[in-house]
Amino acid sequence: MRLLIMGAPGAGKGTQAALIKDYYKIPHISTGDMFREAISKQTKVGLEAKSYIDKGDLVPDSVTIELVRERLLKDDCKNGFLLDGFPRTIAQAKALDQMLKNLEIKLDAVLNVDIDDRILIERIVGRRTCSKCKESYHMTNKKPKVEGICDLCGGTLIQRVDDTEETIKNRLNVYHLQTEPVMDYYNNQGLVKSVDGFGDIEKIFEKVKNLLGGIDDFN
Ligand code: AMP
């Protein structure tokens, strides 16, 4: 199964992506996670991306496209993948088309996690992530058993540097201006399946499975 997951920052893409990855047994490729890892390792890409990410701006297409191109060539993508956070511009969408054409494969679907901007800001400000295993939490909606500590691995929970209110407003603007046209691009190809991102995580995932089909449909 070859999937894209799209939606505004805070729509719950990452949470649904983790469930999709486990259920459909495909690698979850998040460009945001790849950039954060590159920043923590202080690689060339990380150093280049940091200033954009801290402000809530998009990292230049050339850097992002190359990162994804290399990732899609890895062996674990042979039987499918879930791309999260890419493409975010029309130029990236066109570059992805070319990459897939070269690999002689096609996308099965683009999942759009749909949610109102007003809910997003509250969601993002309360968001916390485990520094070790990347499990996500929320200060009011999905609290850890012990404050500040991951239930799964005992790691410390941290807030992303770009999850402040000011940066979020910019990220939402960037999303509406640059990424929504990408949704139209895939809508025109009949690939988009939308799910309401408001509500219980498991119930949303049930709807996602209904939209995408059972795992046997793709084996
Ligand atoms: P995310 O974790 O998907 O919200 O991404 C965090 C940040 O990484 C974004 O606000 C951008 O600065 C950067 N980023 C992630 N994916 C992309 C992309 N496809 N194109 C450009 N910048 C990206």
Fold and architecture overview:
By secondary structure, this protein is an alpha/beta fold. It has a single domain (2-116, 169-218), classed as P-loop containing nucleotide triphosphate hydrolases (Rossmann fold, 3-Layer(aba) Sandwich), CATH 3.40.50.300. It is 47% helix and 15% strand. The chain has helices at residues 13-24, 31-40, 44-55, 61-72, 90-103, 117-125, 165-187, 201-212, and strands at residues 2-6, 28-30, 81-84, 109-114, 127-130, 136-138, 157-158, 192-196. It has a five-stranded parallel sheet, sandwiched between helices. β5 (127-130) and β6 form a beta hairpin. α4 (61-72) runs parallel beside α5 (90-103). The longest helix has 23 residues, at 165-187. The chain is globular. 33% of the residues are buried. The chain binds adenosine monophosphate (AMP). Residues 9, 31-32, 35, 52-53, 56-59, 64, 85-88, 92, 162, 171 line the site of adenosine monophosphate. Adenosine monophosphate is lined by residues 9, 31-32, 35, 52-53, 56-59, 64, 85-88, 92, 162, 171.
Descriptive labels:
219 residues; alpha/beta; Rossmann fold; 3-stranded antiparallel sheet; 47% helix; 15% strand; binds adenosine monophosphate
